[in-house]
Amino acid sequence: MDLPTAWNLDDKPFYLSIDLSGLRVNYEDLGSNIGAIRANHPIPPQCKLFYFEVDIIDEGKNKWIGIGCSKKAVNLSGTLGWYYGSWSYQGNDGKLYYFSGIGNPYGPLFSTGDTIGCCLNFTNNTVFYTKNGINLGIAFRNLKDSLYHCVGLYSPGGSIGVNFGSKKFKLAGTTE
Which positions fall inside the B30.2/SPRY domain (predicted)? Predict the structure, then answer.
Protein backbone atom coordinates (compact mmCIF):
# COMPACT_ATOMS: atom_id res chain seq x y z
CA MET A 1 0.00 0.00 0.00
CA ASP A 2 1.58 3.25 -1.17
CA LEU A 3 0.87 6.39 0.87
CA PRO A 4 1.25 10.02 -0.22
CA THR A 5 4.82 11.17 0.45
CA ALA A 6 5.36 14.11 -1.95
CA TRP A 7 3.69 16.10 -4.73
CA ASN A 8 3.35 14.43 -8.12
CA LEU A 9 5.79 16.15 -10.49
CA ASP A 10 3.76 15.03 -13.52
CA ASP A 11 0.31 15.93 -12.22
CA LYS A 12 0.22 19.73 -12.20
CA PRO A 13 0.09 22.77 -14.50
CA PHE A 14 3.43 24.08 -15.80
CA TYR A 15 3.29 27.30 -13.75
CA LEU A 16 3.47 25.41 -10.44
CA SER A 17 7.05 24.45 -9.59
CA ILE A 18 8.17 21.87 -7.05
CA ASP A 19 11.48 21.96 -5.19
CA LEU A 20 13.90 19.01 -5.08
CA SER A 21 12.34 17.62 -1.89
CA GLY A 22 9.00 17.28 -3.69
CA LEU A 23 7.31 19.01 -0.75
CA ARG A 24 7.35 22.73 -1.60
CA VAL A 25 5.23 24.29 -4.36
CA ASN A 26 5.67 27.79 -5.80
CA TYR A 27 3.19 29.67 -8.00
CA GLU A 28 5.18 31.08 -10.92
CA ASP A 29 2.60 32.91 -13.00
CA LEU A 30 1.57 36.55 -13.15
CA GLY A 31 -1.91 35.67 -11.92
CA SER A 32 -3.68 34.76 -15.12
CA ASN A 33 -3.92 31.02 -14.36
CA ILE A 34 -5.41 28.96 -11.57
CA GLY A 35 -3.91 25.57 -10.83
CA ALA A 36 -3.71 22.70 -8.40
CA ILE A 37 -1.31 19.88 -7.66
CA ARG A 38 -2.01 16.35 -6.47
CA ALA A 39 -0.06 14.07 -4.15
CA ASN A 40 1.97 11.25 -5.66
CA HIS A 41 -0.42 8.55 -4.37
CA PRO A 42 -4.11 8.39 -3.40
CA ILE A 43 -5.13 7.95 0.21
CA PRO A 44 -5.99 4.27 0.70
CA PRO A 45 -9.42 4.00 2.41
CA GLN A 46 -8.09 1.07 4.44
CA CYS A 47 -5.94 3.62 6.34
CA LYS A 48 -9.18 4.69 8.04
CA LEU A 49 -7.59 8.06 8.94
CA PHE A 50 -5.10 10.12 6.95
CA TYR A 51 -3.90 13.61 7.87
CA PHE A 52 -1.56 16.07 6.21
CA GLU A 53 -0.52 19.68 6.91
CA VAL A 54 0.26 22.57 4.61
CA ASP A 55 2.54 25.40 5.76
CA ILE A 56 1.70 28.71 4.10
CA ILE A 57 5.22 29.97 3.36
CA ASP A 58 3.96 32.97 1.38
CA GLU A 59 0.27 33.73 0.76
CA GLY A 60 1.19 35.68 -2.38
CA LYS A 61 -0.57 38.63 -3.91
CA ASN A 62 -4.13 37.23 -4.07
CA LYS A 63 -4.00 35.10 -0.89
CA TRP A 64 -5.86 32.48 -2.95
CA ILE A 65 -4.78 29.09 -1.65
CA GLY A 66 -7.13 26.12 -1.42
CA ILE A 67 -6.43 22.91 0.48
CA GLY A 68 -8.39 19.73 -0.07
CA CYS A 69 -8.72 16.58 -2.13
CA SER A 70 -9.76 15.39 -5.54
CA LYS A 71 -10.40 12.34 -7.62
CA LYS A 72 -7.75 11.47 -10.21
CA ALA A 73 -9.90 12.64 -13.15
CA VAL A 74 -10.30 16.25 -11.89
CA ASN A 75 -8.68 18.88 -14.15
CA LEU A 76 -5.94 20.69 -12.22
CA SER A 77 -6.05 23.84 -14.36
CA GLY A 78 -8.93 25.30 -12.38
CA THR A 79 -10.06 26.16 -8.88
CA LEU A 80 -9.92 23.24 -6.48
CA GLY A 81 -13.42 22.55 -5.15
CA TRP A 82 -15.30 24.18 -8.01
CA TYR A 83 -15.41 21.02 -10.12
CA TYR A 84 -17.13 17.69 -9.59
CA GLY A 85 -14.79 15.35 -7.74
CA SER A 86 -12.92 17.99 -5.73
CA TRP A 87 -13.35 20.09 -2.61
CA SER A 88 -11.32 22.66 -0.72
CA TYR A 89 -11.02 25.11 2.15
CA GLN A 90 -9.90 28.51 0.78
CA GLY A 91 -7.60 30.86 2.66
CA ASN A 92 -8.75 34.09 1.04
CA ASP A 93 -12.39 33.80 2.19
CA GLY A 94 -12.52 30.98 4.79
CA LYS A 95 -15.15 29.12 2.76
CA LEU A 96 -15.58 25.50 1.73
CA TYR A 97 -16.03 24.64 -1.92
CA TYR A 98 -17.62 21.33 -2.89
CA PHE A 99 -18.30 20.78 -6.60
CA SER A 100 -19.35 24.45 -6.91
CA GLY A 101 -18.03 27.98 -7.37
CA ILE A 102 -20.28 29.09 -4.54
CA GLY A 103 -18.59 28.63 -1.18
CA ASN A 104 -20.10 27.98 2.24
CA PRO A 105 -18.78 29.75 5.37
CA TYR A 106 -16.53 27.46 7.42
CA GLY A 107 -13.49 28.80 9.22
CA PRO A 108 -11.03 31.61 9.65
CA LEU A 109 -8.95 33.05 6.82
CA PHE A 110 -5.40 31.74 6.63
CA SER A 111 -2.23 33.39 5.43
CA THR A 112 1.58 33.49 5.58
CA GLY A 113 2.84 31.66 8.68
CA ASP A 114 -0.27 29.53 9.21
CA THR A 115 -0.40 25.74 9.03
CA ILE A 116 -3.59 24.16 7.72
CA GLY A 117 -4.24 20.47 8.29
CA CYS A 118 -6.69 18.24 6.44
CA CYS A 119 -7.87 14.88 7.78
CA LEU A 120 -9.82 12.27 5.87
CA ASN A 121 -11.64 9.90 8.19
CA PHE A 122 -12.79 6.84 6.26
CA THR A 123 -14.34 5.32 9.40
CA ASN A 124 -17.16 7.89 9.47
CA ASN A 125 -16.57 9.27 5.92
CA THR A 126 -15.84 12.85 7.00
CA VAL A 127 -13.17 15.51 6.50
CA PHE A 128 -12.04 18.05 9.06
CA TYR A 129 -9.48 20.83 8.89
CA THR A 130 -7.16 22.38 11.45
CA LYS A 131 -5.54 25.79 11.67
CA ASN A 132 -2.25 25.92 13.57
CA GLY A 133 -3.11 22.64 15.30
CA ILE A 134 -6.68 23.56 16.34
CA ASN A 135 -9.52 21.42 14.97
CA LEU A 136 -12.05 23.53 13.03
CA GLY A 137 -14.76 20.84 12.98
CA ILE A 138 -16.23 18.63 10.27
CA ALA A 139 -16.14 20.27 6.86
CA PHE A 140 -17.39 17.56 4.52
CA ARG A 141 -19.33 14.28 4.80
CA ASN A 142 -19.89 11.25 2.57
CA LEU A 143 -16.33 10.52 1.42
CA LYS A 144 -16.20 8.15 -1.51
CA ASP A 145 -13.77 6.74 -4.04
CA SER A 146 -10.02 6.99 -4.33
CA LEU A 147 -8.91 10.50 -3.33
CA TYR A 148 -5.70 12.51 -3.56
CA HIS A 149 -4.62 15.36 -1.29
CA CYS A 150 -4.38 18.57 -3.33
CA VAL A 151 -3.44 22.21 -3.01
CA GLY A 152 -4.70 24.89 -5.37
CA LEU A 153 -2.89 28.17 -5.99
CA TYR A 154 -3.85 31.38 -7.78
CA SER A 155 -1.58 33.85 -6.10
CA PRO A 156 1.57 35.38 -7.65
CA GLY A 157 4.45 34.75 -5.26
CA GLY A 158 2.49 32.10 -3.38
CA SER A 159 4.43 29.25 -1.85
CA ILE A 160 3.44 26.29 0.35
CA GLY A 161 5.18 23.35 1.99
CA VAL A 162 3.56 20.05 2.89
CA ASN A 163 4.02 17.50 5.65
CA PHE A 164 2.59 14.09 4.79
CA GLY A 165 3.85 12.68 8.10
CA SER A 166 7.63 12.74 7.81
CA LYS A 167 7.84 15.18 10.75
CA LYS A 168 5.74 15.99 13.82
CA PHE A 169 2.32 17.48 13.10
CA LYS A 170 1.04 20.64 14.77
CA LEU A 171 -2.32 18.95 15.40
CA ALA A 172 -2.79 18.76 19.17
CA GLY A 173 -2.28 15.27 20.52
CA THR A 174 -0.31 13.82 17.58
CA THR A 175 3.19 12.44 17.71
CA GLU A 176 5.87 11.57 15.22
Answer: 1-169
